[in-house]
Structures are given as structure tokens and as C-alpha cells.
């Protein structure tokens, strides 16, 4: 089975070709344009997708070294995401499937972040069912109980900001450029994580909240820079380490609760924030201390990418779970 997959939910245009559960190509065009604005501008994203989609699909096919006539089906991201962005990928996928007279397969982006763990790679072991998936990205923060490929339930999610936003907005308060998450990680490595303890927000159950966290960072920085205008510059490493630690504490606290509640100790991490070195180190510690088993896919499959759309497409193809041409994009789309 050869699947061409298309992802255009946010600001990256991506196309991939899979042969069964193996990735032959995975092309991602990043949109640099948003950096100047300090965040994704939906109008610009949609326009950039229109420019990128044809070359990106061509490149995916040529890197995979296959002709479009060999494709078995086209998989695409139906949602959730930015409507204008989703429409570009959806319309393109529909017309290509129609033109080639092959099945069309809709994919839920959040389900794809989770099933990315089933892309076959020699170095990465796959979780077995049931497992808990923690998806942490610029737009999402969720804990999902995964019973099988297509039986998943969200057992916790953020009630306001996503964890990536907590990193990026805290970084912005420190005057760091967007997206600041990777920079916070970099400075944190040299800093003392206990220097400035930030409070954990009180949220019931397995849900998360990060907007209060960001506010406490803001007040703290305002107070300290009033006393010493050079406070940030002098203590950047310690501040970043403390912010990162605060965020990790919130995540691990809820993970522990989820493990206790479900009795499941297999935890699969996905989303761009899983690149964070502090989070990775902490998970390794949890493996030793609590007997957890944690899984993180190859980095290129954790951020937004079409390969993860393709693996969902492959499993749906096996079930002959195809999509009608009347399908439309869906900005809000739960798992
Ligand atoms: P979504 O996947 O929800 O549509 P997105 O495309 O913004 O959102 P990703 O590309 O998965 O999300 O992740 C980007 C986010 O990850 C940004 O907020 C970025 O700051 C954060 N991030 C990336 N690397 C790191 C890191 N090493 N430490 C902390 N945060 C990081
Ligand atoms: Fe995503």
C-alpha cells in the first residue's frame, strides 16, 4: 500500500509518502513569515500553503521515487486547525484523489500525533495497548487513554493555554524572540531550576491550566526588574531553568495522577514540546523511580508533519475506512 499524505493544519505545509507503515519521504515547508509577527497569522498561513502545496507534494513523490499513478490512496488532515489552512490541504487532497480515481482518507490531526508512534523505525520501539499519550505542542496539551488504534479518550486537557504557549509567552516576557521554547530550553541547561519557584495552578482532575503560570512569571519579572533593571540579563539561565521546572512540575503532577487513575504505566509523548531536554530527563527519572515506560518518536514525527497523517491513513486503508468527496474541513474536531 502506498499512501500520499498531506498536512496543512497550522503553519507548516507537509507531504509524505508511506509504503505500508514505513516512511519513504516526509517533506515539511516551514513558514518563516510568522516570526516577524511573534505568532502564526492565519491569513498569511493560508496563502503560504497555497504557494507551497504543489512543490511540496512533488518533492515528496520524487524523494520517495514513485509515480502518482502507483498511489493507493490520499490521506489528509481534516482538522482540528486553522480553517483557511485546512481548506488548502483538504481541497488539494480531494481533487487529486478524484483525478487519480483512488480513495480519499480523512485524518484527525490529534489522533495522528498519537499514532505517529506506530511509524516503523529501526531505532524507536512502539508502545503496546493500552497506553497513555501526552501530546504537548504549540496548540495542544492533552492526556489521552489509547485503547487501540481508533479507540481513544481524552482524559485531561488544557482549559486555557497550551504548554508550548506557556514556554513561548514566558520567553516573550524575557524579551526572547518567537518561538522562545527552544531558547528557554537552551538557557535552562546552564541554570539553577530551584532559583525561583513558580506556583502550580490548582486545577481539578487531569486538566491543565497555563495562563496563570504565565501571569505569575510576568508579575515576578515586573517586580524584580523594578528593583534591578538588569535582573533578566544577570539571571537569564536561572530564570529559564525555573520556568522550565515550573512547567515540568505541572506536567508530571498530572501524569502521575493519570497513571494512578488508570493503572497504565506506558506513556507515549508527542508534539513539538517533547523536544525539551528537561522534560526528557525528567521522564527518564520517572522510568527509574516509578517503573514507567516512556516513548518518544523521532523528532521529525513529533512536530507537525505529514508522515503521521500517512500512518493513520494506512491503518484506515486496512479497514477500508474511506471518505466521501462531499467532505469539508473541520476547525474544531475532537479525537
Ligand atoms: P500544533 O501541533 O498544536 O498544531 P504547533 O505546530 O505550534 O502546534 P509544534 O510544532 O508541535 O506545535 O511545536 C511547537 C512548540 O514547541 C512551540 O511552542 C515551541 O516553542 C515548542 N518547543 C519546541 N522545542 C522546544 C524545546 N526544546 N523546549 C520547549 N519548547 C519547545
Ligand atoms: Fe500538531
TrEMBL record:
Name of encoding gene: tsaD
Q: Provide the protein's localization.
A: Cytoplasm
Can you tell me which residues bind substrate? 135-139, 168, 181, 185, 276
Q: What is its EC number?
A: 2.3.1.234
Q: Family, per the entry?
A: Belongs to the KAE1 / TsaD family.
The entry's protein name is tRNA N6-adenosine threonylcarbamoyltransferase
Give yes or no: UniProt keyword Cell membrane.
no
Q: Which residues form the Gcp-like domain?
A: 22-310
Q: Name one GO molecular function term.
A: tRNA N(6)-L-threonylcarbamoyladenine synthase activity
Q: How is the cofactor bound?
A: Binds 1 Fe(2+) ion per subunit.
Enumerate the transmembrane spans: none
Instruction: Show the PROSITE patterns listed in the entry.
Output: GLYCOPROTEASE (PS01016)
Pfam families from the UniProt entry? TsaD
Q: Which reaction does it catalyse?
A: L-threonylcarbamoyladenylate + adenosine(37) in tRNA = N(6)-L-threonylcarbamoyladenosine(37) in tRNA + AMP + H(+)
